[in-house]
Amino acid sequence: MNLKILLIDDDESLRDIIKDILEMHNYDVITAIDGLDALNKFEADNFDLIITDLMMDRLNGIDFIKKLKSKYENIPPIILMTGYGSVESAIEAFKLGVKDYIIKPFKVSLLLNIISRVLKQASLERENIHLKEIISLYSASEKINNSIFVDEIGKTFVQSIREITKSSIVVLYLKDQDHNILKTQEDFFMVSSKIIKDKEKIFNMFKVKIPLELALKMFNENKNFYIIKKNIPFVEGLKDVFQTVIVQLKTASNFIGLLFIISLDYNVQLQEEKIKALKILIDESSIALENALLFQQQEEMFFQTLNSLALTIDAKDKYTHGHSLKVSKYSEIIAKRLGINEKITITIVEGALIHDIGKIGIPDGILLKPGKLTDYEERIIRTHPVIGRNILEPLKKNFGKIIDITYHHHERYDGKGYPEGLKGEEIPLEVRIVAVADCFDAMTSDRAYRKGMSIEKGIKELIKNKGSQFDPQIVDCFIEDISEIKRIYYSKPEDLVSKF
Ligand SMILES: [Fe+2]
To answer: Comparing C-alpha atoms, which of 362, 332, 357 is closest to residue 436?
Structure first.
């Protein structure tokens, strides 16, 4: 197939001569009489190269290039034809990305040389882009395979598809297990830089719930994707859609969701071959999403179990009612403020929920004693971290950090705590966080033998014991904003039982 050139010049005779010569050299040529005419011709066709005159009446060369760049993400290389005396404009054109220029009048052989050089360079650039795509596919695939979180996998997947296809909008809809629908979220919605300012407005159009049955019906011929012109099924309100590609995400046993790749730009047209080339990433992401959804379900079940366990531990003593739940919420605040990643934050929250599980093994006579404890009774109470560790021992392989929190939550920063007397950073960060949350709630709650402190007094105590009992950085972080602390302090325990 011949390469296609858009030739723009207001001089009819020159236009015809160049057209004839280029056609003799096996190029297909479409001519335009000025920038305005060229814009219309560009809109209706695909070109490999543009050759444009600079000075034209209705829309000159510079303004034509500016318009083209503002409207399209990918434009073919441009060669400028210019006369003497318009050097400044030529410089401006170069700033706009023009690849080469030729000064009129010129020899035909020179024009042909320039064309061949520019086309060769463009082909090299395309190869380069192709190489970059392969690298970006590889790194996306690595990131997706290393994650167990639905949000993270979905986001990386959508982001890479957007970058590789250069599409205007990419959106992922996932199957919602409970409601027989597909839905999306902000993380799974990416747009090109051209429409980023309208991202929120456009996202609102995509917030639809797609009935699972209808989604499945679309693919009943076992087709993996559809290419649709100027129409987005299920979504209303978006104008100027040029092409919509709908890809089915599925694994050997499950339908996972739909991916929409939408182009508002004539020049970004996704061909079947390109979609097929993305198949590996699409398949890998479908499997990763399936596993992550399963993991999420199990994690939620495990979390519910821990919540029930926390309520059981706290129910032993009416004075510690809600203690474990509050400690887990305070710990969550600290972890998030410290910028700890989601996976470790979940572990901290889970560990905090059952940090006192060992109290189950302490006789009620000692645990619930209203008065001061004898030395012997104190020693018995102090065994609860060890009992806790023993209870959780069977979970050691997968939940080692949770056991650390249970076992070490009475260690002190200065090494004077128990059971091991660990000091400073010998105490794992997760444990140091829970220790601050635990003591704060213990101090500010009523006990059988004393009234709880106010929030303000509790904070003063934390500050006083910075560096001795507590890690100073964690205290600073905890007291940085007390409005959230107040909300938890005044909550009923049952309102704190929530999905993480
Ligand atoms: Fe404790």
So the answer is: 332
371 within a domain of the structure (yes/no): yes
Distances (CA, A) of 297 to 109, 154, 291, 332: 69, 16, 10, 21
Q: How far is the CA of 228 from the centre of ligand 1 (A)?
A: 61
Phi, psi (deg, nearest 5) at residue 44: -95, 0
Q: Which domain holds residue 72?
A: 4-128
Q: How far is the CA of 316 from the centre of ligand 1 (A)?
A: 14
Q: What pLDDT digit, counting tens, does each position of 117-134 carry? A: 999 999 998 888 888 888
The confidence band for 135, taking pLDDT boundaries of 50, 70 and 90, is confident
- Average pLDDT of the chain to the nearest whole number: 89
- Asked whether residue 153 falls in the same domain as residue 280, the answer is yes
pLDDT digits (tens, 9 = 90+) for 147-175: 888 999 999 999 999 988 889 999 999 99
Q: What is the pTM of this model?
A: 0.64
Please check whether residue 425 lies inside any domain of the structure: yes
122 with 163, same domain: the answer is: no
Ligand 1 centroid–CA 383 distance in Å is 10
What spacing in Å lies between the alpha carbon of 269 and ligand 1's midpoint?
62
> What tens digit of pLDDT does each residue of 187-233 get?
999 999 888 899 999 999 999 999 888 888 887 777 888 888 877 88
The answer to whether the beta carbons of residues 433 and 319 sit under 8 Å apart is no
* CATH number of 74's domain: 3.40.50.2300
Ligand 1 center to residue 301 CA distance, Å?
25
| Percent of residues, the chain, with pLDDT higher than 70 | 98
- Answer yes or no: is 327 within a domain: yes
C-alpha 382 to ligand 1 mean position (Å)? 8
Cα 429 to ligand 1 centre (Å): 17
CA of 355 to the centre of ligand 1 (A): 6
Q: Are residues 321 and 463 in the same domain?
A: yes
Number of compact structural domains in the chain: 3
DSSP per-residue codes, 403-440: HHHHHHTT--TTS--SSS---GGGS-HHHHHHHHHHHH
Q: Do 243 and 156 share a structural domain?
A: yes
Q: If you measure from the C-alpha of residue 359 to the centroid of ligand 1, how many angstroms do you get, rounded to a whole number? A: 8
268 shares a domain with 194: yes
Q: Does residue 336 sit in the same domain as residue 481?
A: yes
**Ligand 1 centroid, distance to 312 Cα (angstroms):** 15
Does some domain include residue 311?
no
Count of residues making up the chain = 500
- Expressed in angstroms and rounded, the spacing between residue 500 Cα and the centre of ligand 1 is 22
Query: Rounded to the nearest whole angstrom, what is the distance from the C-alpha of residue 385 to the centroid of ligand 1?
Result: 7
Alpha carbon of 370 to ligand 1 centroid (Å): 17
